Amino acid sequence: MTKKEKKNLMRIIAAVILVILCTVLKLEGYLRFAVYMAAYLIVGYDILKKAFKGILKKQIFDENFLMATATVGAVLLGEYTEAVAVMLFYQIGELFQSYAIGKSRRNISALMDIRPDYANVETDGKMEQIDPDEVEIGTVITVLPGERIPIDGIVVSGTSTLDTSALTGESVPRGAKEGDEVLSGCINMDGLLKISTTKEFGESTVARILDLVENASSKKSRSEQFISRFAHYYTPAVCYSALALAVIPPVVIMLMGKDPEFSKWIYRALTFLVISCPCALVISIPLSFFAGIGGASKNGILIKGSNYLEALSKVKTLVFDKTGTVTKGVFEVTEIVPVNISKEDLLYLTAYCENYSNHPIARSIKTAYGQDIDESLISDIQEISGHGVTAVIAGRKVACGNEKLMKRLGIEFEKADSIGTVVYVGVEDRYVGYITVSDVIKENAARTFSLLKNAGVTNTVMLTGDSKTVADKVAEKLKIDKVYSELLPDQKVAILEDIIKTGNGKVGFVGDGINDAPALTQADVGIAMGALGSDAAIEAADIVLMDDDIIKLVTAINIARKCIRIVYENIYFAIGIKLRCLVLGAIGKSNMWMAIFADVGVMVIAVINAIRTLVVKKV
Amino acid sequence: MKKNYKIEVDCANCANKMEEAAKKTEGVKDAVVNFMTLKMTVTFEEGYEPKEVMERVRENCKVVEDECEIYL
User: Fold this and answer.
1) Largest CA distance in chain A
2) Contact A215 B66 (CB under 8 A)
3) Is B10 within 8 Å of A98 when comparing Cβ atoms?
4) For residues A300-335, b (16+ Cβ closer than 10 Å) or e, as one string?
5) Which domain CATH number covers B18?
6) Share of residues in chain A with pLDDT > 70 (%)
7) pLDDT value at A531 more than 70
8) Are residues A315 and A335 in the same domain?
9) Which of A143, A386, A405, A582 has minimal CB crowding within 10 Å?
10) What ipTM is given for this predicted complex?
11) How far apart are CA A607 and CA A84, in angstroms?
């Protein structure tokens, strides 16, 4: 608690004690009035003072002025118990709000507390801690075990493991050795690293991320704009109706020749004033967004604005780029199917045969083989363009290639039915099996797509420059609704535009930030994956998933939907209760106690509800 | 030109009022008050000196909310 909060708490306690004393001692008459007034002044003197100042500045819709008018009015009507109660609860509400906001501010900043305070720089053989802002590019900094890397750079000496959890939300350790590029924000776990900086602190990953998250809640969402506009009209509207309520009904009744009961109507008008403060609404909405963005960043999901969080919750169509997003973007041997030969032999013969080829497919086969190749065993290599390779390996004639090569050599083979590129192998003109090389689908991809359906995404689309057969098979396996294959980069943007025009709901585009910056900007929500260290992706996207794991997409959408749900709950709840109290107040069915609940109680509940946004469920 | 300022304000609605007051100030193109981070981001009109404009912004904010502060 801050000093100010403590002081207010003491005032509240003092006033409560006075009120209790008054009741316990059963004080009557003037003494009772005097004690109540003392309590009223102790707890409300600052409101009265501010109200007076407000009048001088012609700020009549200032909440202090409203509270002062309501309570002073109540005292004049002889309802001084209620006057004290209103002031007391109003102050309790303010105290709670101030405390809750302060606490969540600190909580969320703690989540984002990855700002390094210093960098170790060696000068004249002595290590000095200096402000990261003052470190020039090319300076060699030392990072001790347990310290956070302050500035992006390249390791010049030392080896260590890095904890990247501050950036990605996942604590998978990464190795770092001489020559490796390392990012600021990672924690050096065991070894001592000397790093030559490649960027200034302000341009380093950690500074950019902090800047992004801190400024995120300044881009206001439509709910926030709605609520400030609402607040703008709500207070004056309630105040004028209070005035009308105090004057019109009694005058009408008087004209009808009956007793106008002025004090009854004034009392009802005063309850209006108590309800007129819009703070519950105004505070809970930005608080929800702030907590949502904070909770997301803790999980390695950067959201660049409350407006994007809102848009993400309404995404109905998600468009994916294939390579690097749905698949790993790396070719790997996924199948080895031998015929009348051992698996090892098939791989060995193929790897030897493809030894001199530099094609990505050949390289992935050699990686799968994993042993040194004795080049003296290979002779008579012949590369037949568009077909494959033939060679003599340890005296045996081996042919590796596509269907065309098999047909050309007259080797009978069985057509393989697999996703990816198939390499058929023949030995001495006899078919011995095939090896499939393909871009591997990410581990969590299938789960992601099925969870997305539960998260309200009704339509999934995949765009790829890859061949139709491969694309269709990937889509079938992952149950993607629609596929466009064999596309050029500008066609991707055109198709996306089309989907945005014809589709309902918001359209999101998910890419890896490489070559798809135009699409990321085009979509309602651009989501870049695996963007750790990729400035272009962070720049172009609205939402950035720091690591490669596609399941984070589901986490992001869940956070967004929960946040928006809480925002709407609070809007309906707060406005609903307030309107109900206004109506009941107007017809005399509610009193000031109820009005206090509508003001303070609703605020407390809305704030507690908003803080729920911070909790993120792992998928 | 865009600049960030640290502010001090107690309630969310007062922050909204500050934002409105700042927006109406001469020389201010746009202003956003972020209550959660207690920051005010002001975009200035061409040809205005931020320092002078901010003095006026502070004055206008003090009118709508006596207890606010902008750290210039």
Assistant:
1) 123
2) no
3) yes
4) bbbbbbbbbbbbbbebebbbbbbbbbbbbbebebbe
5) 3.30.70.100
6) 98
7) no
8) no
9) A386
10) 0.84
11) 24
Residue of B nearest to A286 (CA): B36
Claim to verify: residue A492 and residue A542 sit in the same structural domain: yes
pLDDT band per the 50, 70, 90 thresholds, residue B55: very high
Verify that A104 and A124 share a domain, yes or no. no
Q: What is the pLDDT of residues A96-149, one digit of tens each?
A: 888 888 888 787 777 667 778 889 998 877 888 888 888 889 999 999 888 889
Mean per-residue pLDDT for A319-325? Answer: 87
Residues A27 and A62 both lie in one domain: yes
The answer on pLDDT for A483 being more than 70 is yes
Half-sphere CA count of A144, side-chain side, radius 13 A: 8
Q: Give residue A111's pLDDT.
A: 67
Domain hosting residue B52, numbered range: 2-71
- State the smallest CA–CA distance between residue B28 and chain A in angstroms: 17
Answer yes or no: do A231 and B16 touch at CB < 8 A.
Answer: yes
Q: State how far the alpha carbon of A266 is from the alpha carbons of A65, A70, A82, A327, in Å.
A: 17, 10, 14, 70
pLDDT of res. A210:
78
A390 close to A372: Cβ distance less than 8 angstroms: no
Residue A348, classed as helix, strand or coil, is: helix
A413: alpha, beta or left, given left = phi > 0 and alpha = psi -120 to 50? beta
A-chain residues near B10 (CB < 8 A): 94, 98
Average pLDDT score over residue span A25-48: 88
Task: Please tell me the distance from the alpha carbon of residue A166 to that of residue A404, in angstroms, as a whole number.
Answer: 51
Using beta carbons and an 8 Å cutoff, which residues of B are at the interface with A? Answer: 10-13, 16, 19-20, 32, 34-39, 41, 63-64, 66-67
Q: pLDDT above 90 covers what percent of chain A?
A: 23
A441 three-state secondary structure: strand
CA atoms within a 13 Å half-sphere pointing along the CA-CB vector of A106: 7
User: Is there a domain that residue A296 lies in?
Assistant: no
Mean pLDDT of A564-574: 93
Overall size of chain A counted in residues: 619
Q: Tally helices (H) and strands (E) across chain A.
A: 21, 22
pTM equals 0.82
Give tens-digit pLDDT for A188-214.
Answer: 888 899 999 999 888 888 888 777 777
CA atoms of A257 and A64, how far apart (whole Å): 38
Q: Are residues A427 and A369 in the same domain?
A: yes
Q: Which residues contact A255 (CB under 8 A, 6 or more apart)?
A: none
Nearest to A218 among B20, B41, B66 (CB): B41
Instruction: Dump the DSSP string for A257-326.
Output: TS---HHHHHHHHHHHHHHT--HHHHHHHHHHHHHHHHHHHHTTEEE--HHHHHHHHTEEEEEEETBTTT
Comparison of pLDDT for B29 and A300, the residue scoring more: B29
Both tokens assigned to A64: 């202090």
Based on DSSP, count helices (H) and strands (E) in chain B, helices before strands: 2, 4
Beta strands in A419-488 (DSSP E): 421-427, 430-441, 459-463, 482-484
Q: Which CATH number fits the domain that encloses residue A365? A: 3.40.1110.10
By Cβ distance, the residue of A53, A218, A220 closest to B66 is: A53
Average pLDDT over every residue of A342-355: 89
A149 and A238, same domain (yes or no): no
pLDDT at position A318 is: 94
User: Domain count of chain B?
Assistant: 1
Per-residue pLDDT tens over the stretch A413-440: 888 877 778 899 999 888 999 998 888 8
Q: Which helix (H) or strand (E) holds A589?
A: none
Active site residues of A: 321
